[in-house]
Design goal:
By secondary structure, the chain is mainly α. It is built from 4 helices and no strands.
Length: 123
């Protein structure tokens, strides 16, 4: 009598894409690395490095340190804020550079002070 199984196919579907190939390659490299570490530890009499158990995403989220959102929003002494304030302090000196000053006449109109090239001759 034949055994009938429901819910799974006889041959499981295996994705053969770059992601699965990369994971398989890295898994094999990790296994080889652990074997080499065991051999070296046995030869030199050292203890194997303790491997921490990998946590899933929910456990990582639960262990994450939380902070008060109000204090985070109102706090201005962050590294990013210090960089912005340092750049803002340099800005007036940067704008006073002669490169950015406008040449204006008495009426306040900007003068375009670029000499035009002559069409004829070498002047």
């Amino acid at each position: 009598m034949a055994k009938i199984s429901y819910g799974r196919s006889v041959k499981p579907v295996v994705k053969n894409n770059a992601r699965t190939r990369r994971h398989m390659r890295r898994m094999l490299e990790a296994i080889e690395c652990r074997k080499i570490e065991e051999i070296l530890a046995a030869q030199f009499g050292h203890e194997l490095p303790v491997r921490s158990a990998e946590l899933n995403r929910a456990e990582i989220c639960c262990k994450r340190v939380t902070c008060n959102r109000v204090s985070k929003a109102t706090e201005t002494e962050t590294e990013y804020h210090k960089q912005i304030m340092a750049g803002a302090a340099k800005y007036p000196d940067y704008r006073m550079n002669s490169q950015f000053t406008k040449v204006c006449n008495e009426a306040g109109r900007q003068i375009h002070a670029v000499q035009k090239k002559c069409r004829f001759g070498n002047n």
